[in-house]
């Protein structure tokens, strides 16, 4: 992608949430314009029209800054669904994720996914995994664990690799086609992939 010079302008006097959002917005713009490898604290500060020292006081390096900006672009974590039915809980989880990649999180995840794929910075990979992806995948795993405890799926199916399967299919479509899958595909992923692999028994307690 072509390099885009940050817009000119003097630093403006902003504080708190307003300044934070300007910085995060500048980070995402830089990711999309030049990629992670070329992103610098100086460029972010210039684009956000603030001083470098403001950024360095909170973020010791661009790794932490990018991870926080991506996490902020995604909707906050919601309460774990617990309807008493593993299928319904999975539908809630994956519908939320579908909504996430339809919104502002789409651009953030596309920009970062390209950098994670190249693995030019394993520390960034770890930060995004711990702060962004890990907590959301844990919610899916918790749903499977509760389903296993209720006897709705096989106990050995409540494992991280199956918890990652549904989200992986959603994000794979985003990376391949540049847009989220049709909403109807969420139900297909649950009914045709995750639940059969989990040994789901319809009508189980």
- The number of distinct helices, counting runs of at least 4 residues, comes to 9
Spatial shape: elongated
Q: Which CATH class of the largest domain applies here?
A: Mainly Alpha
Could you estimate the helical fraction of the residues in percent? 55-70%
Describe the structure.
- By secondary structure, the chain is mainly alpha-helical.
- It folds into two domains: 16-72, Arc Repressor Mutant, subunit A, CATH 1.10.10; 75-198, Tetracycline Repressor, domain 2 (Orthogonal Bundle).
- It is 69% helix and 0% strand.
- It is built from nine helices and no strands.
- The chain has helices spanning 16-38, 41-48, 52-58, 62-73, 86-102, 105-118, 122-149, 160-177, 184-198.
- Helix 1 packs across helix 4 (62-73).
- The chain is elongated and about 60 Å long.
- The termini are far apart.
TL;DR of this structure?
By secondary structure, the chain is an all-alpha fold. It is 69% helix and 0% strand.
Which helices and strands appear, and what pairs or packs with what?
Elements: H1 16-38, H2 41-48, H3 52-58, H4 62-73, H5 86-102, H6 105-118, H7 122-149, H8 160-177, H9 184-198
Helix pairs in contact: 1-2, 1-4, 1-6, 2-3, 4-7, 5-7, 5-8, 5-9, 7-8, 8-9
Q: How would you describe this structure in keywords?
A:
Arc Repressor Mutant, subunit A; 9 helices; Tetracycline Repressor, domain 2; elongated; mainly alpha; 205 residues
């Amino acid at each position: 992608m072509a390099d885009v010079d940050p817009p000119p302008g003097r630093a403006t006097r902003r504080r708190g949430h307003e300044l934070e959002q300007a910085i995060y917005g500048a980070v995402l713009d830089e990711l999309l314009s030049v990629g992670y490898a070329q992103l610098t604290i100086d460029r972010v500060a210039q684009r956000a029209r603030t001083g470098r020292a403001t950024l360095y006081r909170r973020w010791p390096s661009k790794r932490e800054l990018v991870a926080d900006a991506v996490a902020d672009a995604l909707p906050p974590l919601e309460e774990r669904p617990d309807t008493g039915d593993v299928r319904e809980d999975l539908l809630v989880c994956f519908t939320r994720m579908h909504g996430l990649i339809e919104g502002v999180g789409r651009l953030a995840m596309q920009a970062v996914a390209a950098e994670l794929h190249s693995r030019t910075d394993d520390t960034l990979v770890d930060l995004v995994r711990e702060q962004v992806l890990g907590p959301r995948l844990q919610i899916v795993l918790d749903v499977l664990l509760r389903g296993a405890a209720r006897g709705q799926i096989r106990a050995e199916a409540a494992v991280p690799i199956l918890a990652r399967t549904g989200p992986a299919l959603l994000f794979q479509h985003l990376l391949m086609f540049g847009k989220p899958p049709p909403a109807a595909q969420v139900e297909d992923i649950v009914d045709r992939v995750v639940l059969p692999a989990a040994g789901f028994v319809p009508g189980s307690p």
